[in-house]
């Protein structure tokens, strides 16, 4: 292309590991660089580079997102003991996603990529159902106690300001049992609420929120109340103007209703509910490689990535020189999502149009029957369906993209 499309503001790019690093490079070289004139602030989050910088590179990447507003991230290894040995690391560094999330104070939204020839497991679903999972507290930050025998369990709160100690009776145990204490922070719930309202408004979709507030009259009802106050204070008018709704309902009711909705909504969920139900939504839509993920910070920073990991098993095949058929769809959508957001923030409709065309080229390729191995098993059976290699898929998308840009 003679005249490349100009991306106004610098994009923060975070490179990653294994098979996704291989695909990432192909996507950039084949689908982006020939068409876009962009300034990239590059952070190499390869596990060896994180190790060499004592993980400072991850913090620097998060700071760059705070500076520019939009970051696009490849999948990265979260090292465990095996990985420490495999890569000769100094230690098992923390999850980069966890580090970035803690710094940006964000909420993660996961949205499936729909194509016409892969039908969701639930026949009523026509549009994507996005899950917004609160990523703090509850059972993930709990204290558990194996009660050894008969006795009284109490909760004791000691105020920092020297106020009166409060003790709440929990249960008189007649014999051995189990106990669990969960906590949450008002500030974390409020930032979760703000991220959900921000995301729903930016996507112009309804927001559902559900908890078990009829049973949990302080804890779950507290979540409901914080959402309600925030909505009425800061979002009601904006939602009305955008023609979208905020809807709270009991979690059981939401689970029953979700099966009958046509989708096209954001479903905000507490930590455990989100953990469980996001896997249900992912599986109902076929493949991990067809799921995008974006971290939305209440401060208006966005980080786009694929929901899947580094596809380690395919990488080992690739290293042995064997043919691979890994799906780059979610990585392509990480770029298109980030570019579209950049276009919205910069007021550059050409960049938004490019993102739309890139996505249409990618989904169109699968709809023509050209797909990687993971999709071949779940797509509508047609004799024209063709399994392609990792590179073959990206090349087929490039052909479609070129047509769309010409037309
Ligand atoms: P994974 O990379 O998501 O892959 C699990 C399996 O799902 C693959 O073996 C493959 O199945 C299938 N799959 C996932 N993405 C695919 C794609 N794009 N195309 C085709 N098939 C795909 O999870 P993992 O193997 O458990 O984790 C590997 C590494 O990723 C770990 O070191 C973990 O720490 C990291 N991780 C990173 C992130 C992140 O950065 N956001 C998230 C999760 C995990 P088949 O083998 O059956 O083909
Ligand atoms: Mg889970």
Can you walk through the features of this model?
By secondary structure, this protein is α/β, with parallel strands linked by helices. Helices cover 44% and strands 21% of the residues. The chain has helices at residues 18-32, 47-52, 56-68, 81-87, 96-104, 186-203, 219-234, 236-242, 251-258, 271-284, 312-319, 329-346, 349-367, 373-376, 390-406, and strands at residues 5-6, 11-15, 36-37, 40-44, 70-73, 107-112, 129-133, 143-147, 151-157, 166-173, 177-181, 206-211, 246-250, 265-269, 291-296, 302-306, 370-371, 386-387. The strands form five sheets. It has a ten-stranded mixed beta sheet, with helices on both faces. Strands 1-3 form a two-stranded parallel ribbon. A two-stranded antiparallel sheet has the order 8-11. It is globular and about 75 Å long. The protein starts with a strand and ends with a helix. The mean pLDDT is 95. The structure holds NADP nicotinamide-adenine-dinucleotide phosphate (NAP) and magnesium ion. Magnesium ion binds at residues 275, 279.
Are any ligands bound, and if so which? NADP nicotinamide-adenine-dinucleotide phosphate, magnesium ion
Q: State the distance separating the first and last CA atoms.
A: 13 Å
Strand content: 15-25%
Secondary structure: number of strands: 18
- Largest pleated sheet: 10 strands, mixed
Low-confidence stretches: none
Q: What value does the average pLDDT take?
A: 95
Cα-atom radius of gyration: 23 Å
């Amino acid at each position: 292309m003679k005249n490349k499309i100009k991306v106004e503001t610098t994009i923060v790019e975070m490179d990653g590991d294994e098979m996704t690093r291989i695909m990432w490079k192909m996507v950039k070289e084949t689908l982006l660089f020939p068409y876009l004139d962009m300034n990239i602030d590059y952070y190499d989050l390869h596990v060896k580079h994180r190790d060499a910088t004592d993980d400072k590179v991850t913090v620097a990447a998060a700071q760059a997102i705070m500076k520019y507003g939009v970051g696009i991230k490849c999948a990265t290894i979260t090292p465990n003991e095996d990985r420490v040995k495999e890569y000769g690391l100094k230690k098992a560094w923390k999850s980069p996603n966890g580090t970035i999330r803690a710094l940006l104070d964000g909420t993660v939204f996961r949205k499936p990529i729909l194509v016409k020839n892969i039908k969701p497991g639930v026949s009523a679903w026509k549009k994507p159902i996005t899950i917004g999972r609160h990523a703090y507290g509850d059972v993930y930050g709990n204290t558990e106690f194996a009660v050894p025998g008969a006795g009284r369990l109490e909760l004791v709160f000691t105020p920092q300001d020297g106020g009166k100690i409060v003790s709440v009776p929990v249960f008189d145990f007649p014999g051995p049992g189990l106990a669990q204490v969960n906590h949450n922070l008002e500030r974390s719930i409020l930032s979760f609420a703000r991220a959900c309202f921000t995301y729903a408004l930016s996507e112009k979709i309804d927001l559902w929120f559900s908890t078990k507030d009829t049973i949990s009259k302080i804890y779950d009802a507290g979540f409901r109340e914080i959402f309600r106050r925030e909505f009425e204070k800061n979002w009601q008018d904006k939602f009305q103007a955008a023609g979208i709704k905020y809807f709270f309902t009991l979690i059981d009711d939401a689970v029953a209703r979700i099966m009958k909705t046509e989708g096209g909504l954001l479903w905000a969920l507490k930590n455990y509910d989100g953990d469980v139900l996001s896997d249900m939504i992912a599986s109902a839509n076929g493949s991990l490689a067809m799921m995008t993920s974006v971290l939305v910070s209440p401060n208006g920073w966005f980080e786009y990535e694929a929901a899947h990991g580094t596809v380690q098993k395919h990488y080992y095949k690739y290293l042995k020189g064997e043919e691979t058929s890994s799906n780059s769809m979610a990585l392509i959508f990480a770029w298109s999502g980030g570019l579209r957001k950049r276009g919205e923030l910069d007021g550059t409709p050409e960049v938004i149009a490019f993102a739309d065309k890139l996505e249409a080229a990618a989904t169109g390729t699968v709809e023509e029957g050209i797909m990687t191995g993971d999709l071949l098993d779940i797509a509508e059976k047609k004799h024209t369906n063709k399994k392609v290699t990792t590179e073959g898929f990206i090349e087929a998308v490039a052909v479609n993209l070129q047509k769309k840009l010409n037309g």
